[in-house]
Design goal:
Elements lengths: L18 H4 L7 E7 L16 H4 L12 H16 L6 E8 L7 H14 L2 E11 L6 H9 L4 E7 L3 H7 L7 H12 L3 E8 L6 H14 L3 E6 L7 H7 L8 H17 L3 E4 L2 E3 L7 H7 L3 E5 L4 E4 L2 E5 L3 H9 L5 E6 L2 H12 L6 E2 L5 H12 L5 H5 L2 E2 L3 H5 L1 H8 L2
Parallel strand pairs: 1-2, 1-9, 2-3, 3-4, 4-5, 5-6
Antiparallel strand pairs: 6-8, 7-8, 10-11, 11-12, 13-14
Helix pairs in contact: 3-4, 4-5, 5-7, 7-8, 8-10
């Protein structure tokens, strides 16, 4: 089941933000994340805030229905306009995630995007992405999205091997994600991503190579490759605990990452974030970069998180409770926190070190600087950028990114 929300102070009923959050807003990019919490089935490894029809039955009534979800989410977009007041910014990025956004009618996704355009305006070069399950789209659906303003799409491929998909409880058939890339290109999508997962119990090095080769053959311009994380409370965690499938260790994850880097580099992809590769700067996911660089975004939907000017808040998780709050004219916010300057410094290091451009050494305290010198000596940071005042991970450093970050934030 979905993980718990963090603690925080109450969100005002009208969602109002402190004046400090809006100060200087015009100089910061603004994005929207739209969360669609519905899935046809629950994957065994997933602890995202998502719900199947069975999980929702009897818990939210008509308010939790996906049939009227678009209108409910549009209510929050209108709330965002009221909260942000006369903020002059057009929206730079929109990302529709889930769940499986493409379980909604294509017209619903287009209406949600249109509401953002009507309330805020979209930048002329705005990036507009949706995630999609390969089995939930067809050429007509993709054409409707493209005509409605979407220009980037991300398909959940995970693996090209049936036995790996079975362990993950993925329902699509091998080969379907690759076909989706061709259909998206035919519909006019400029940018297409494939999501891959490595380290699934029972996956071999050759299985992983086959998945990478299949992804490369499909012709996306972006690939995300994530090590499988076994979250407590998931079906997969229970299966591992019972000894039904083996746990994959960190050394295997490291080997698979090196295979990914080798294969993707040979195919013309460059890393720009530890888990993300693109064929060009234009192919990078601008919305995710907005997160990683501490920009402003409004997260609409159950359990969605937002950040504006150093204030972070999150919505109630259940679709029924979310819809009920908006129907009553209240913010669906469940809690929030105001980040201190130190919080924001630490978060910049945590996130920006994972990027190809790295993090300025000027953000580091004395102990962090000493740790950076050790990391440089150990071959975890690149020498050239370091001499220019930036900490940038080497390939070996990427394998140990979490440990490097922990040392640098001291």
């Amino acid at each position: 089941m979905p993980s718990a929300l963090p603690d925080g102070e109450p969100v005002p009923a009208d969602g109002a933000l402190p004046a400090s959050a809006l100060a200087g807003a015009a100089g910061r990019p603004l994005g929207f994340y739209l969360h669609v919490p519905y899935c046809a089935t629950r994957c065994g490894y997933c602890d995202f805030n998502t719900y199947t029809a069975t999980e929702l039955r009897g818990t939210g009534g008509v308010l939790a229905s996906r049939d009227n979800y678009a209108e409910t989410l549009i209510d929050e977009i209108r709330l965002a306009r009221k909260v942000l007041g006369d903020d002059p910014r057009e929206v730079r990025t929109v990302f529709v995630g889930g769940g499986t956004p493409t379980l909604l009618a294509a017209g619903d996704l287009v209406r949600m995007l249109s509401a953002i355009r009507d309330e805020f305006g979209l930048a002329a070069d705005a990036e507009v992405t949706t995630e999609a399950n390969p089995e939930s789209v067809d050429p007509a659906y993709l054409a409707t999205l493209r005509q409605g303003g979407f220009n980037r799409i991300s398909f959940g491929m995970q693996s090209a091997k049936q036995h790996v998909l079975k362990v993950l409880d993925r329902t699509h058939t091998p080969g379907r994600p690759e076909a989706c890339v061709a259909e998206a290109r035919a519909a006019g999508f400029e940018h297409v991503n494939l999501d891959l997962i490595y380290g699934t119990p029972g996956e071999s090095d050759d299985d992983w190579r086959a998945s990478l080769d299949a992804a490369m053959g499909a012709g996306p311009d972006h690939v995300s490759a994530y090590a499988l994380i076994v979250e407590e409370g998931t079906q997969l965690a229970r299966r591992i605990r019972r000894g039904e499938v083996p746990m994959t260790d960190d050394d295997v994850h490291a080997d698979r990452y090196l295979i990914a880097e080798e294969t993707l580099s040979a195919a013309g992809f460059d890393w720009y974030e530890v888990s993300n590769w693109a064929t060009s700067d234009a192919g990078r996911c601008l919305h995710n970069e907005l997160y990683w660089r501490g920009g402003d975004w409004w997260g609409a939907g159950p359990g969605a998180h937002s950040h504006v000017g150093g204030v972070r808040w999150w919505n109630v998780k259940h679709p029924g409770a979310y819809a009920a709050a908006l129907a009553a004219g209240r913010s669906p916010g469940a809690g929030r926190e105001v980040l201190t300057d130190e919080d924001r410094r630490v978060e910049r290091i945590l996130l920006e070190l994972r990027l190809r451009e790295g993090v300025p050494l000027s953000l580091l305290r004395e102990q962090g600087l000493a740790a950076s010198r050790r990391a440089l000596s150990d071959g975890l940071l690149q020498e050239g950028p370091y001499e220019e005042g930036r900490a940038v991970l080497t390939l070996r450093g990427r394998l140990l990114a979490d440990a490097v970050v922990r040392d640098l934030v001291d």
